[in-house]
Amino acid sequence: MEILDKLINVALIAATLRTTAPILLVALGGSFTTKAGIFNIGLEGQMLVGAFFAVLGSIWTGSALAGVACGVAAALVFALVFAVLVVSFKANEVVVGLALNILAGGMTISLMKAIFGTRGSIVGHGIVGLPKVQLPGARDLLGSWAPLISGFTPLVYAAFIAVPLLVVCYNRTRLGLYIRVVGEKPEAAEALGISITRVRYIASLLCGLLAGLAGAHLSLGYITMFTENMSSGRGFMAVAILIFSNGDPLKVLAGCLLFGFADAFSLRLQTFGYPSYLVLTVPYVVALIALFALSYRARPRIIAETLESMRKLLSVDRNTEPGGKNPQ
Amino acid sequence: MKDHLHAVSGQVIAIGVALLMGAIIILMVGESPVRVFMTLLRGAFGDQEKIAGTLLQTTPILICGVAACIGLRGGMFNVGIEGQLFLGGFAAAWVGFAMPLPAGIHTLAALALAVVAGAAWVAIPAYFRARYNTNEVVSTILSNYVAVLLTSYFTIFLFKRPGGWSETPPILATSYLPEIFAFSRLNWGLVIGLVLAVGVALVFRYTRWGYGVTMVGSAPKFAEYGGVNVKRQGFLVLLLSGAVGGLAGGVETLGVHHRFMEGFAPGFGFDGLIAALLANGSPVATIFTALFFGALRNGSLLLEVDTSASREIITVIQALIILSVSAQVLVRKRGDSQAGERRWKF
């Protein structure tokens, strides 16, 4: 019991929120492309360049905010390339996404070597991290539970605030509606005169924006350094979440909290002397199990849908047959 | 034939564009593109040892490329070759150091276990892909991370060489893949790769099973009406692809490193996938694209020594090649249909 107490406490929940934030930001970004009907495996790379250029911008300007802007700008460039190739040139989205991920990995390492002359990681060099926001009154209100709402870097708050914003966007705004129509029924969108290309570009760029924020949070908020491939699969976990949440912001939040918890828990287990290599697999294993379990659960629905569409097809056939080709 | 020529010329133009963009990036990191490309060329083909080194690097890329081709033909993206390679490599090393067997049989047993390990590692994603349509791209990517960490755990916590650092004991000499020349570590693994590429190409071309796989990949509905069990076929395709990925790891262990260590063969799985994509899923064409990437990789070793650029610049060039190849739709004729194409085709 004592061990359990040590493992699960306020600090762990606060850590969960901290580890959830980057994956939540990037998954919410991917929610736009998912809803618009694009399978975006390139989240990982957008996040990575976001993290790298955030550090670069922060060093050059001495301002964390400018760093975040740099990170977002870099991720937007990647998102734009993705959109040009996938939306305009109709290239295969998996191939383009994977290639952009590889490009991001190679480019950040090459630039790191060129600019800092080192391999591995950038520490120091005057990186300005994001400040921690202490909410006034949190301590009076919650006492020892105050770390749950106070003392995070700004992008943690941004991540959680973005969830209701996205819900509103999808349900109450014209853009959100357009994105959903383009994703679910492109023919209907075309018939309504909505430009599929334009909507998909907007969705891709919104995705890049949030992925860039996620990257900036990794290197300026979560910790204040950049290391090779520091996104370490978070983008792919986000894609896993997007597959089984279908991009719905609230389900995305639930999935991200699960992975954030797995992440925080594995960090915590390490401090208790469990072999770090095994413990580090925990988030990935959780993601895989969730992916498999939820696709298993989705199975009856697929069958029901198939049956329904077959029935529709058959009834349409029956209706058209007598009047059409087979007049007796 | 004309179609072939058209396809190849398109690929060549794309590579040219990519090299041009690569040159711009090299300028950005403060190096001379001419110097970098010349160094790459010298590092890849400078003398007979360099050429042997290039072929040595080509071997795992080729085998991984064949693994990717098998998946792509059947409409499956096996992005988990990297993980299968790591597990295969470890499995072969384990047979190599833990099971004394007569020479020859030892090598075969080690390769066999590597194949089994690779197939076993992809079995769960393959099962869920075939049965419940779980996206195999994501599940195989995520399983890569687990594979790398798991083999590191085996190496460091269970089978560490006493006094060594994050590596297993060396394998017994009876399990080595013999070397071809005295001056290089180049070994019979390359021959295995070449035979495998040609063999797989022949299977796809001349057997009923191979035709069925290609049909499932390019027109699953048609294949289903034609009586192919699409689900079982998909499962088998991924399993086979994983088995070949495991073999790549086994060859790398038995032929090159003679032990398993942390950070073993980084990136060969992805290089193989890219080589297969560039070859448009043809195992024979993969021989040439793998050679190209092997040359880049071997050349990049000299790059690190002779210039200030990092060797990852070749990863950038590879990614640019794939991007510009995928953008080729721009130059494709308008009349070309998009509908009946394989889903991985550029």
From TrEMBL, chain A:
CDD domains with a match to the protein in the record: TM_PBP1_transp_TpRbsC_like (cd06580)
Membrane topology note: Multi-pass membrane protein
Bilayer-spanning residue ranges: 7-32, 38-57, 64-89, 95-116, 145-167, 201-223, 235-262, 274-294
Keyword Glycoprotein assigned: no
A molecular function GO annotation: transmembrane transporter activity
Main subcellular location of this protein, as a coarse class: membrane
GO cellular component: plasma membrane
Cross-referenced InterPro entries: ABC_transp_permease
Keywords: Cell membrane, Membrane, Transmembrane, Transmembrane helix
Keyword RNA-binding: no
Source organism superkingdom: Bacteria
Compartment annotation: Cell membrane
UniProt name for this protein: ABC transporter permease
Organism: Mesorhizobium ciceri
From TrEMBL, chain B:
Gene Ontology CC terms, in alphabetical order: plasma membrane
One protein family per Pfam: BPD_transp_2
Cellular localisation: Cell membrane
Main location: membrane
Domain of life (superkingdom): Bacteria
Molecular function (Gene Ontology), one example: transmembrane transporter activity
Entry keyword set: Cell membrane, Membrane, Transmembrane, Transmembrane helix
Transmembrane segments: 12-30, 51-73, 85-101, 108-128, 140-159, 186-206, 235-256, 268-293
Keyword DNA-binding: no
Signal peptide interval: none
InterPro entries in the cross-refs: ABC_transp_permease (IPR001851)
Membrane topology: Multi-pass membrane protein
Protein name: Inner-membrane translocator
Record lineage: Bacteria, Pseudomonadati, Pseudomonadota, Alphaproteobacteria, Hyphomicrobiales
